[in-house]
Amino acid sequence: MGAQVGGAYAAGVPCERLAAQWRSATFARMVKTLLPTIPWGGWSSGNEVARLMRSLVGDVSIEDLPKRFAAVATDLQTGAPHVLASGPLVPAIRASMSVPGLFTPVWVDGHLLIDGGVSDPLPVDVTRELGADVVVAVDVLVHPEEVTLSGIPSLTQNERLLGVVKKLTNDAASGGGGRRFHPNVFSVLFQMSTVFQKRVSELALNLWPPDVLIRPDFSEDPPCYSDVGCGIEAGIRAAEAALPEIAAHLR
């Protein structure tokens, strides 16, 4: 999301248009965006996402943007962050958002690239290298404890013998109670990614703290691919709350 929003903003796309683009997302469009691909290096080729971004920003190069911009990806072969600060904008955005397993990796200038969040989910260091005097970082990573895990209930020996399942309470189904359950593989992989990225982000914040850190609260209505939910409103509220701190740094 950082590369999409940042790239569009740097290209001069009005925030209102970008918001309208995401509000128009539907389940049908999400399915079209995530159509499977062959060879199967990821669930989707990402071509539809690239087409949508090109409709917003056109075929512009990063070095020609009216604002400084860099997208951060991860070199799959070395594991190191790979900064894209020149060249075509859309392929850079596409590379930066190549979530492993969801979108296929992208070859850019001889590097096989995946999601930048794998190696540098909050690239404050890259922003400072671009020449920023004041860095405002936006952390949208979900804390692992905020993820509701669920799955197939684990039956006791007696329940297996009798062939019956006790009624699950909401607390037990969500993993908060005493009843055990077996999450599916996608839940396990998503939670693994959540834990990993949050830990990397916390370590990076200790090494390269931003001047202002914004953390929107998405708990009311979390955004997802097919529904932006309260994501935009939560971001506005968090940014407005940070305005006095930003203004103090600018003075």
Assembly level: single chain
Spatial arrangement of strands, main beta sheet = 2-1-4-3
If you compute it from the alpha carbons, what radius of gyration comes out, rounded to the nearest whole angstrom? 20 Å
Form type:
globular
Q: Tell how many strands the DSSP assignment holds.
A: 8
By secondary-structure content and strand pairing, the structural class works out as: alpha+beta
Low-confidence stretches: 166-176
Number of helices: 10
Which percent range describes the beta-strand content?
Answer: 5-15%
Tell me the major beta sheet.
4 strands, antiparallel
What would your notes on this structure say?
The chain has 251 residues and is an alpha+beta fold. It has ten helices and eight strands. The protein has helices spanning 2-10, 15-23, 27-33, 47-57, 89-96, 124-129, 157-162, 170-173, 185-207, 231-250, and strands spanning 71-75, 81-84, 106-108, 111-115, 136-138, 152-153, 181-182, 212-214. The strands form three sheets. Strands 2-1-4-3 form a four-stranded antiparallel β-sheet. The protein is globular and about 55 Å long. It starts with a helix and ends with a helix.
